[in-house]
User: Which sequence fits this backbone?
């Protein structure tokens, strides 16, 4: 087990990619801090971790609220003293063509997807700097690299995450902290399950591997970036997208 004794925070851990990341890290011995908005779903994930004989704790917080995020981190530091891993995974979509997009749709997506990454990274960085160790992985998207009609808000937020990743990586590299991003392509999760079949077919045509990814394929890439084997990798984006962007 490669993460025995490590403390790992995963945001948006209730379902989809975040749930799979949390389960993967707990299987590797990490004590996983599960963060999401809804308590019930989080507790189901905590039960799954416990059934696998793993360790986790549950924190309800909105990643877009710095006050709530700070409260989570204060409690985690009180209980565990250290934070080794942060996986900024929570994200939302509010799709619309720009002509019809409301200010609320723009603000909601930017606030969760980009400010959420700022909030959690800011809240953990002091602890990581004093430990001279840390790994941050931000979940971006292929849409932040290539754009997608109807997703100006989402594409801007995910491209913003890539810029944030590179800037923070440069700031903290001398302190033993790495900061990287993963840009998934289309992944079969609750976020994509309601896409009309016709739209799914069009996306699959664009993917050289002719299928959506699975959440555990993203989790494996996260595990690698958090591992000791990835110690000399920082400020990078790993594309896990079936060849959609090369
Ligand atoms: P998902 O199934 O919708 O899961 C996202 C989780 O984040 C949900 O549990 C959601 O809770 C939670 N969340 C939303 N807003 C939050 C907030 N303000 N604070 C705390 N938690 C919040 O999505 P997913 O497909 O697993 O996506 C995970 C990440 O991968 C996202 O950043 C997404 O943009 C990115 N991504 C996904 C795909 C894909 O094809 N699925 C592709 C590229 C990138 P609620 O359900 O209660 O809202």
Assistant:
């Amino acid at each position: 087990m490669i993460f025995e004794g490590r403390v790992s925070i995963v945001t948006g851990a209730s379902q989809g990619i975040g749930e799979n990341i949390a389960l993967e890290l707990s299987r590797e011995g990490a004590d996983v801090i599960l963060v999401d908005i809804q308590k019930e779903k989080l507790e189901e994930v905590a039960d799954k971790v416990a059934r696998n004989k793993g360790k986790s704790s549950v924190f309800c917080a909105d990643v877009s609220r710095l006050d709530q995020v700070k409260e989570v981190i204060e409690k985690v530091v009180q209980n565990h003293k250290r934070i080794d891993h942060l996986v900024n995974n929570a994200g939302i979509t509010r799709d619309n063509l720009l002509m019809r997009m409301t200010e609320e749709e723009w603000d909601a997506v930017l606030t969760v997807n980009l400010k959420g990454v700022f909030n959690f990274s800011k809240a953990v960085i002091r602890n990581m700097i004093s430990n001279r160790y840390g790994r941050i992985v931000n979940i971006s998207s292929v849409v932040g690299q290539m754009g997608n009609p109807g997703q100006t808000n989402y594409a801007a937020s995910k491209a913003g995450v890539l810029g944030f990743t590179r800037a923070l990586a440069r700031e903290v590299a001398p302190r033993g902290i790495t900061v990287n991003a993963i840009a998934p392509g289309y992944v079969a999760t609750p976020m994509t399950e309601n896409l009309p079949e016709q739209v799914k077919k069009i996306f699959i045509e664009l993917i050289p591997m002719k299928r959506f990814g699975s959440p555990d394929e993203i989790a494996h890439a996260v595990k690698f970036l958090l591992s000791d084997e990835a110690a000399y990798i920082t400020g990078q984006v790993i594309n896990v997208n079936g060849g959609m962007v090369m």
Residues 11-12, 14-18, 36-38, 62-64, 89-92, 112, 139, 141, 184, 186-187, 189-192 surround NAP (CB under 6 Å). The beta strands are 7-11, 31-36, 55-60, 85-88, 134-139, 177-184, 237-240.
